[in-house]
Design goal:
Elements lengths: L2 H29 L4 H22 L1 H17 L1 H26 L3 H8 L7 E2 L16 E2 L5 E8 L6 E11 L4 E3 L13 E3 L6 E3 L4 E5 L6 E11 L7 E6 L5 H12 L1 H18 L4 H25 L4 H26 L13 H17 L1 H13 L5 H36 L3 H28 L1 H9 L6 H15 L2 H10 L1 H4 L5 H26 L4 H27 L6 H27 L1 H4 L3 H26 L4 H9 L3
Antiparallel strand pairs: 1-10, 2-9, 3-8, 3-10, 4-5, 4-7, 4-9, 6-7
Helix pairs in contact: 1-8, 1-12, 1-23, 2-3, 2-6, 2-7, 2-9, 2-11, 2-12, 3-4, 3-7, 3-10, 3-12, 4-7, 5-6, 6-9, 7-9, 8-9, 10-18, 11-18, 11-19, 12-13, 12-15, 12-16, 12-19, 13-15, 13-16, 13-20, 14-15, 14-22, 15-19, 16-19, 18-19, 20-22
């Protein structure tokens, strides 16, 4: 079993991709920061990217690899390539039809994916000179940082809306003036302050933003709005947003551009499955690097040329281009390896029916983390900038998850499948035990480090330019909440192949259903508890971690009952040693972080220097503790990398 060697190949290329991904996100954070543009792009990209991860890292490979391996071993290479070509063509046909349907319907899709980006209240008819009726007054803030108003009128002569009062209502029931219009005229389009009065006029098509005071826990804002100057009754529409009014329309536009990425990545996942089955892991693991390289080119060259106002469009077109580049590279790699997968007229053969039968449950079971993140994004859309806070924190914890979790999912499935086919049940059990051991060896210290030094990591990587100290402080707690579930996310990837290798995708699907329900319940409870304080996004991250551990427990129970999981003595002996080594490292990091606190907040370079020192001390201290306590040894690591299968 060449588990460590194969893991190193996948993890190495994944690490390069993640590092380039960090560089990409640093550029995004400096150029765009956290704004409605990043909220729109991250939401638009999350949708096709979620399906990329489901297909590329889960459902499709979980169904295709065992069938392709069976065909290769039983009928030979020629028949396996024939089967691969038919499944490739069928998958392309189905997804092409889905893409043609989805793009025109993207407005409806985004209404489900990001409902919080839309208006929260609409006014109705209004009589000239009267207070506007139909407006939700007072407007509940629910943790919003700003209130946006968008005015539209369908009349021949649209009236002017006059805002004469804006009062803030605190939790204690106090009422205070929200905005001094005479000293601080609004900065929206088509708005003008009233002469000698505390108010302003808003013309048809205009928008206005009411920034809310920092540190004041407010429940609602009450507005007094009058219409004047129209001809009779006009159909006046005043929409109230807790996000920038342009967010939803921009999200729809960017999602239409990026959606083709789903088609390309699903086909790329198929080609990756072919290569992984024949133990070629390099190109499939390296393909995502191309996406980040294209992103960086777009941010460095095209955004300064076109302008920051179009940064979201540039990023979306980078995704579009990268999809075709990655697909082409994997197709070339398959052909070079002697597996020429081509487009043919697909037929619904028994093997094809079996593939789709296995894929259905696999989409739920293997894509559980992505489904949970999508649910989190839907809920997060109801809090301004929460989508961006979650995105940047996800980028950090995705590094160890990508290097270890994805690698285990890719490497263990063919490993266990071969053992099961050859009736070597003991080898399959050993693969899972070593997978659990190696995953904890890396993820436990990573979890402790992310909990202890979340703020130095976020500020060191992203802070600067448009990404301010306040945004670092808001993002860091979400990273800590995600970190609590990091070992769970990886263990899911270790345990699922125990089912998939035996062509059982239904059991993980049922478990995934319970996990999704858990995530929804905890996300709603924790988000609503914390949203009034403006930190609802932390509750979403925490709910995702809770759901991950529920998934792990249920997967382990299911495997154990079937006799597919028996914890060996080596694993039991190593777990406590890994835990103690991680805790000792965490204590040292905590003390050092406290000592460097002032230095961390004093400037960009001081922060980077401190973060480098913290990471270096963390790695060195954990390595020393792990070797001293016997959590692993240099000899075992060397032997693992030398194995050739």
């Amino acid at each position: 079993m060449a588990q460590l060697r194969s893991l190193a190949t996948v993890s190495g290329f994944t690490a390069i991709s993640r590092v380039l991904g960090f560089l990409r996100d640093v550029f995004i954070s400096r150029i765009v920061g956290i704004s409605f543009v990043t909220d729109a792009f991250f939401t638009a990209f999350r949708f096709p990217n979620m399906f990329r991860r489901i297909f590329g890292e889960g459902a499709f490979n979980a169904a295709f690899v065992p069938l392709f391996a069976k065909k290769l071993e039983g009928d030979g290479k020629k028949e396996a390539v024939h089967f691969g070509s038919h499944t490739f063509s069928m998958l392309g046909l189905v997804l092409a039809i889905a893409t043609l349907i989805a793009i025109p319907c993207m407005g409806l899709i985004m209404s489900v994916v990001a409902p919080g980006f839309k208006a929260k209240a609409d006014s109705g008819w209004v009589a000239q000179g009267q207070v506007l009726e139909g407006l939700a007054n007072p407007i509940k803030l629910a943790g919003a940082k700003d209130v946006f108003l968008l005015y539209e009128s369908e009349g021949a002569k649209a009236p002017e809306l006059t805002f004469t009062k804006a009062d803030l209502i605190t939790k204690a029931g106090e009422r205070r003036a929200l905005w001094d219009f005479r000293q601080h005229p609004p900065s929206p389009t088509l708005a003008a302050p009233l002469q000698g009065a505390a108010g302003f006029r808003l013309l048809n098509g205009g928008t206005v933003r009411f920034p809310l005071p920092n540190g004041l826990e407010a429940e609602a804002v009450e507005l007094e709005v009058r219409a004047a100057g129209g001809q009779g009754e006009e159909n006046v529409r005043l929409q109230v947003y807790r996000n920038d009014p342009g967010t939803f329309d921009l999200t729809v536009t960017l999602a239409r551009i990026t959606f083709i990425y789903l088609l390309c990545m699903a086909l790329a996942a198929h080609l990756s499955g072919v290569l992984n089955t024949v133990r070629i892991f390099g190109m499939p693991a390296a393909a995502p690097i191309m996406l980040n390289v294209i992103f960086i080119i777009g941010l460095v060259i095209f955004v300064p040329t076109i302008g920051k106002g179009k940064a979201g469009h540039v990023l979306a077109w980078c995704v579009f281009v990268a999809g075709f580049v990655q697909l082409g590279a994997l197709w070339w790699a398959c052909r070079r390896a002697g597996y020429h997968i081509r487009l043919v007229r697909p037929k619904m053969s028994p093997e094809m029916k079996r593939l789709f039968l296995l894929m259905g449950p696999g989409i739920m079971s293997a894509g559980i983390q992505q489904i949970n993140l999508l649910i989190g994004g839907i809920i997060a859309s109801f809090q301004q900038n929460a989508v961006s806070y979650l995105y940047y924190s996800e980028r950090i914890y995705q590094l160890p998850l990508g290097m270890v979790g994805i690698a285990f999912g890719v490497v263990l499935l063919p490993d266990i499948t071969r053992a099961v086919r050859a009736r070597r049940d003991s080898d399959a059990l050993t693969s899972i035990n070593r997978g659990i051991e190696y995953s904890l060896l890396i993820t436990l210290p990573a979890t402790i480090a992310l909990l202890v030094i979340a703020f130095p990591i976020i500020s060191g990587v992203f802070q600067g330019g448009e990404f301010t100290l306040q945004k670092s402080l808001a993002t860091a707690p979400a990273l800590s909440a995600f970190a609590l579930g990091l070992p769970g996310y990886v263990l899911i990837k270790v345990l699922q192949p125990g089912y998939f290798a035996r062509e059982d995708t239904k059991t993980p699907m049922y478990i995934a259903g319970v996990t999704v329900l858990t995530n929804i319940v905890f996300s709603l409870i924790l988000f609503n508890l914390l949203r009034s304080k403006g930190i609802g996004h932390i509750g979403i991250a925490l709910a995702t971690s809770i759901a991950a551990w529920v998934n792990v427990v249920l997967l382990a129970i299911g495997l154990r009952r079937r006799g597919y999981l028996q914890v060996d003595k080596r694993l039991l002996d190593r777990v406590w040693r890994i835990a103690v080594a991680s805790l000792l490292m965490g204590i040292l990091l905590f003390v050092l972080n406290q000592a460097l606190d002032d230095f961390l907040r004093s400037g960009r370079w001081q922060c980077l220097l401190s973060l480098t020192l913290l990471i270096g001390v963390g790695i060195a201290s954990y390595g020393a503790c792990a070797f001293t306590l016997g959590a692993t040894s240099r000899t075992e690591l060397r032997q693992g990398f030398r194995r050739s299968g």
